[in-house]
Amino acid sequence: MSSMKMMLLPLLIALLHSPVCLSVTVSSSKPKVEVHEHTDAVLSCEFRTEKDQSPRIEWKKKGKAVAFVYFNHKFIGSYAGRAKIEGATLTIHSVTQKDSGEYRCEVTASEDHVNLGEATVTLNVLVPPHVPSCEVPGSVFVGSGLELHCKDKLSVPPATYRWYKDNKALTGTADTPYSVDTNKGLLKFKSVSKTDAGMYRCESSNNVGAPKSCVAQQLKVVDYPINLAILIAGAAGFLILALSCCICVCLCRRRGCCKKDKKTKSTKSFNPPPPPPPPIRNLKHYKQAHSFMV
């Protein structure tokens, strides 16, 4: 028994004199936070140090570049005057969509062996629907195509849309002369008729707040005017006549060119080439005749 104690004693002494690995630990009890716009957002951050009793606390927001939120015991930029810190937990008052993003809590304990710890909290600010912009023309001709557009760019998450005609919801099916895209806010007609005339409005919703609707607008479906119909028919007839004339002229010219080419070729084939000059047999006689002529 005494021999065992003698063996454990050096081990105990070694443990007492060996350096202990001290480190700061940082965590968040709620790493993902979702709050409505214009309310307070609480970003929790808890830390524990082994030795340092006054660690340095910093908050940063990630983006295209890391920006300080809390540094050197004060808030920076737009957070000054609308945020507070308790321990290491950050509270931002009256948040907006611009506050959405990823935040990092950093605790530095210089007296600990591992002196830096951090935790990340993601903030998502929910925005209720806004009054959407609706594009409804005042009038459209019978038989023409038509697209009505509706958009709410501010709601988070993105809004879905519903169109109403005379306060009755439109649901596009295979039997209706129109189609509805609830994600894009598009109401599309392939060919409008007189029955499509009425008061149209669009409603946006995203389950964050109450749905919002634009003011209903009147859509008129009218016939083409008689003078306009005559003008269109006359223009179409003129175009057809002009096209026919151009085709005839091209055909006539083409046939005439072919005949001319054939005539030229036949004339050239019946004209024999001129006879070559007689050969000079005697150079002396040629010189005498040439001098006599001169």
Automatic annotation (TrEMBL):
Keywords assigned: Membrane, Signal, Transmembrane, Transmembrane helix
Coiled coil: none
Entry's Gene Ontology cellular component terms: cell surface; plasma membrane; protein complex involved in cell adhesion; tight junction
Alphabetized InterPro entries for the sequence: Ig-like_dom, Ig-like_dom_sf, Ig-like_fold, Ig_sub, Ig_sub2, Ig_V-set, JAM2
Transmembrane domains' residue ranges: 228-252
Compositional bias segments (type: Pro residues): 271-280
Region described as Disordered: 262-281
Top-level taxon of the source organism: Eukaryota
Signal sequence interval, chain numbering: 1-23
One Pfam family this sequence matches: Ig_3
An example Gene Ontology biological process: leukocyte cell-cell adhesion
Start and end residues of each Ig-like domain: 19-122, 129-222
Name recorded for this polypeptide: Junctional adhesion molecule B
Organism annotation: Collichthys lucidus (Big head croaker)
